[in-house]
Predict the structure.
Amino acid sequence: MTAPRRGPVLWQRNIVGAVATCAALAVLAVVDFWPHWSTYRSTQVPQRIAAPRAAITLDGQTWQLQTVRHLSDTPGRLGPPMAAGAVFTVVTIERSGTDEGQPCEAVLTDGTRRWTSVSLVLGPAEHSAGITTHCSLPGALRVAFEIPSDAVPTALDITDSGGGILVRLQL
């Protein structure tokens, strides 16, 4: 008569179960969390970074910071009055090359805080010079921001419609 065969001892089964659980959690993390993490990461890390006043090309279009002006009041006194302790920052970006007509937004940052652009009314002279306030139109892009007077912006981010940073232009 032979002795009954015994299966693996309890600690061996526990190790096998722990390894299987870790593998299942790793697969879940990759499949479920990775797309969300990638989307979040694109809103924090730019695809391209340009040094101050340097040109950078992305998808066949060249972007270069042209001018940055800080005004104590809105230009031409158009629009509502500014908040107390705020300055109006106007940035002009020279663009050339092929344009895909993609919508985008401009965001000014000091490394910690971020400000989205505000509406800006261009005069006839600016329109005839090829300046626009819309990313999807060809020509130089002019954007404006109302920021606190103590802010020292360090970069201008051009973002896609989902908030992903396409280009960061250092000021």
Q: What stands out?
A: The radius of gyration is 26 Å. The chain is about 20% helix and 35% strand. Helices lie at 10-42, 124-128.
